[in-house]
Design goal:
Oligomer: heterotrimer
Chains: A mainly alpha, B mainly alpha, C mainly alpha
Shape of chain A: elongated
Distance between the termini of chain C: 25 Å
Helix content of chain C: 55-70%
Number of domains of chain A: 1
CATH topology of chain A: Four Helix Bundle (Hemerythrin (Met), subunit A)
Number of helices of chain A: 7
CATH class of chain A: Mainly Alpha
Radius of gyration of chain A: 20 Å
Helix content of chain A: over 70%
Largest sheet of chain C: none
């Protein structure tokens, strides 16, 4: 275990920890605001077209979406456990938990792609394209579905980035570069994953449940 | 090896696992509720459960409570802006007057 | 009260940050915040020149009521490019990424920003985004106006998508720089330097960085959606598919109104510094400046709908935004009163930076008051989309930010280059810039009030006189800018050497050599004496900690 030396321009490891932790939270704030507009558009759309949005939810792939919710919540748990393990210097356990997290994240992504396939087979495409919309002509329906594709698409892109970040971090843990006094690096990577989870926690009811 | 006084101490894995189980339970509850015909209340309830789940993730997994004040402020500021955007945009749509049935009478054009 | 002389404890000449490594690679791949600041300076100044050329061409077109030198389509593209280039490639990074990068660590007694490699990455992200915008120009540019309102932006058969991608990328540079500066101020301050002892320019950059981080992602999303709609016809703002074009405006202005405070807060930081230094006096109220800075940063987020009074918003929102918009003026007024009170009974030294600050005070006040005027909904109905609004924002952005940028350029020229420019030429440059500015934009208030719409290629003959006056003014302004460029380049090569503190300032950046060494300070920086304390004598070398 080690690498407990701090970067040259910092005075101490504590300062580096504080800086990277704060930096990560500020960055997460900006990521939240990236998604904010999509939630605002949903709210406005729902107020303008309540029946159409309700109808949209009724045609959502609830099983896949809900399974994905369980997958993502579990992955948040495993990554949090990975952090705890690393804080206790249980490096092998930490790496194993990270591997599980990444596997769950990849499962989420795979299920998402499957789900998109199901939409396309049902004739639901972004932009109100597809023959689903010829038989379901409520004016707000194309908006619901396009918002769904853009929001879940942006979220899925973040899942991919998160998987990459977790993978790189797992490597660093394996090489002993992170751990002990430098566990905050894994904590920050896990924070990104938790944000991805947080966004989905709100996407799920809006697009699948009600 | 330098000491890192900022490092967050480990919290119990049991706590993390309990939180995880709680999240799945809340999700299951939300899933079950979605089959009940609740009308407008349905979305409100689902979102309320989502808020609870989010708080669990924030408090237990992301350890919001143990953060330095600066990080807490950053998170709260971002959340405030999200709320501001949502409320004023929703208010616009909610409170827009319906379009008049007839276009307003043309104003006389000023002479050149 | 005596005027402080240059402190005697400055170290003997050290290799400056510019001479320690001299290869091109060492500059282009430097993680030194000072070199990155200089890189940004060159890039943003080139953008200023490009945006300025676009403006001059527009003004030439307006010499006659009908077609003059270009087609209507070209005109539309030029005013769009002028806006895009000036706002995102110049104004937003003009002070924070250049002077902010150079000075922030020095002003807090640090040797670097928190994330030096991220800083370098931010610069190259800016360059990549700018390259996209340039490529889009080469592909024929776009004609939507810099605001890209839907539905036209979604349908316009022009280079919308590459331009928006470019701005999206530049936005990430802004966000990452903001993160870097926020963390730097929170975690890298020198021992003993509390928040309420930081220089006011640092506070200004800090407030700006908060806005950058919170607002810019919203722009990113808006541009992403318009790009998707344009490229794939997804119609998120299409009423036929359930969308609402006014919602685009909400998202766009949610960013773009705070964005103007990204542009003005750093300028105000410069003003605070210059006023204190050139009146050799501490600010009338340090806390007033600090709290009004934070106040502007916060309230700036609450006002975006005042750009949308006639767009079709609900009356409720219009009323709310109108009321909230009045609040910002309070904080700006607090600053202006504090600055003027600082000047009073100061030992004033008239030098080019202070002349530009005088110009700022007049033009910003005037521009700000017209801002309150257009924020009044009943008046805005008359002025919206006329030259009145154009004149208002050019008063605050050019008369405000650009003027402060010029003040900063002259004020910190000796610190960055180690040389002094000629005051005589500086004064001439200021006279040309100030009078040229006046001549360009005062006629535009009159034009707008008389009904001249903005973004119009042709106009009724009765407006010609004022248009010609505005164009002549633009030539004087351009002459002033070119003259400034010329004498500063001359000073860069041949100017007399400046010492560590040619202005006898008390602020922290003047306590190291000019130019600073690579690590900013050679020993522990002497920050015990306050940045604005002009009454206490400099500590003798033996007394230093």
């Amino acid at each position: 275990m080690n690498g407990a030396r701090h970067a040259a321009h910092f005075e101490s490891l504590a300062q580096q920890d504080h800086a990277t932790r704060l930096g990560m939270w500020v960055f997460l704030g900006s990521e939240l605001l990236l998604f904010a507009g999509l939630f605002a558009l949903y709210a406005a759309g729902r107020i303008a077209h309540p029946a159409a949005f309700h109808e949209g939810v009724a045609h959502a792939e609830k099983s896949i979406g809900s399974l994905n919710t369980a997958v993502l919540l579990t992955s948040s748990t495993t990554v949090a456990l990975a952090v705890e393990s690393l804080r206790r210097d249980r490096r092998a356990l930490s790496i194993a938990l990270l591997a599980v997290t990444i596997a769950l994240g990849a499962t989420f992504f795979g299920l998402k792609l499957t789900e998109y396939g199901a939409h396309f087979r049902a004739g639901i495409y972004p932009g109100g394209a597809g023959n689903f919309f010829t038989s379901h002509a409520a004016p707000g329906l194309p908006l619901f579905w396009t918002l769904y594709f853009v929001t879940t698409g942006l979220h899925a892109a973040h899942v991919c980035v998160g998987l990459g970040v977790l993978g790189l971090t797992a490597q660093a843990v394996a090489r002993g570069k992170i751990g002990g006094e430098r566990a905050y690096v894994l904590e920050n990577a896990a924070l990104y994953w938790h944000l991805v989870d947080l966004i989905w926690i709100f996407l799920w009811p809006l697009y699948y449940l009600a | 090896m330098s000491r890192n006084e900022q490092a967050l101490p480990p919290s119990s894995s049991g706590r993390v696992l309990a939180a995880g189980a709680g999240l799945l339970a809340l999700a299951a509850a939300s899933y079950a509720l979605s089959f009940v015909r609740l009308g407008a209340l349905g979305l409100g309830l689902a979102l309320a459960i989502a808020v609870l789940k989010a708080l669990v993730v924030l408090w237990v997994f992301m350890q919001f409570g143990r953060l330095p004040a600066s990080a807490k402020l950053a998170a709260l500021a971002a959340f405030f802006m999200l709320a501001l955007m949502l409320s004023l945009m929703a208010a616009d749509i909610e409170l827009r007057e319906p379009a008049p049935a007839e276009p307003p009478a043309a104003a006389p054009t000023p002479s050149p | 009260m005596t005027i402080a002389s240059e402190p005697s404890f400055l170290p003997a000449a050290q290799p400056s940050f510019a001479s320690s490594h001299t290869s091109i690679r060492s500059w282009l791949l430097s993680t030194d915040h000072k070199r990155i600041g200089v890189l940004y300076f060159f890039a943003t100044t080139l953008s200023l020149a490009l945006g300025g050329v676009f403006a001059l061409l527009l003004r030439i077109e307006h010499l006659t009521p009908g077609p003059t030198v270009m087609s209507a389509m070209t005109y539309n593209r030029l005013f769009t490019l002028h806006g895009v280039t000036m706002v995102w490639l110049f104004m937003i990074p003009s002070i924070p990424a250049t002077f902010g990068n150079f000075l922030l660590p020095i002003q807090i007694g640090a040797s670097e920003v928190a994330f030096p490699r991220l800083n370098l990455l931010s610069f190259w992200i800016y360059v990549l985004g700018a390259a996209f915008v340039l490529v889009a120009m080469w592909l024929g540019a776009l004609d939507t106006g810099w605001t890209f309102y839907t539905p036209y932006s979604v349908h316009s058969p022009s280079a919308v998508v590459p331009t928006l991608i470019g701005i999206f990328i530049v936005g990430w540079s802004t966000i990452l720089t903001g993160v870097n500066f926020i963390v730097t101020v929170h975690t890298m301050r020198a021992r003993g330097l509390g928040w309420m002892r930081m220089p006011l320019f640092t506070w200004a950059i800090y407030g700006t960085s908060i806005i950058q981080v919170l607002a810019t992602p919203v722009l990113g999303l808006s541009l992403l959606i318009v790009s998707l709609d344009h490229a794939f016809a997804w119609g998120l703002f299409d009423p036929a598919r359930g969308g609402d074009p006014v919602l685009y405006q909400h998202l766009f202005w949610f960013y773009s109104h705070p964005a103007v405070y990204i542009m003005i807060l750093p300028a105000m930081g410069v003003v605070s510094e210059v006023i204190s230094t050139f009146s050799h006096k501490n600010p009338y109220s340090y806390k007033a400046i600090v709290y009004s800075t934070l106040g502007i940063a916060f309230v700036g987020f609450l006002t975006w709908g005042h750009h949308m009074f006639v767009a079709g918003m609900s009356v409720f929102d219009a009323g709310a935004f109108g009321a909230l918009s009045m609040l910002v003026a309070i904080f700006s007024a607090v600053k202006v009163f504090t600055w003027v009170s600082t000047l009073r009974r100061g030992s004033i030294v008239l030098a080019t930076p202070l002349w530009y600050v005088f110009g700022f005070l007049i033009l910003f006040m005037f521009g700000g008051m017209t801002g309150v005027a257009v924020a009044t909904m009943s008046l805005d109905v008359h002025w919206h989309d006329t030259y009145f609004v154009v004149a208002h924002f050019h008063f605050v952005m050019v008369g405000g930010t650009l003027t402060a940028w010029l003040a900063a350029l002259h004020y910190w020229f000796p610190k960055v280059t180690g040389r002094m420019y000629s005051e005589r030429w500086g004064l001439l440059g200021f006279a040309l810039v100030f009078s040229g500015f006046f001549g360009t934009f005062v006629p535009q208030f009159l034009l707008g009030n008389a009904g001249m719409p903005r973004r119009y290629y042709e106009y009724p003959a009765r407006f010609q006189l004022l248009h010609v006056a505005s164009t002549l003014g633009s030539w004087v302004l351009a002459a002033g800018m070119l003259l400034t460029l010329a004498y500063l380049l001359h000073a860069l090569c041949f100017g007399r050497r400046a010492g560590g503190n040619p202005w006898a300032s008390r602020c922290f950046e003047w306590r190291t050599s000019s130019p600073p060494p690579e690590k900013n300070f050679t020993a522990q920086p002497e920050l015990g004496l306050d940045a604005y304390d002009y009454t206490t004598a400099w500590p003798a070398p033996e007394e230093r900690a």
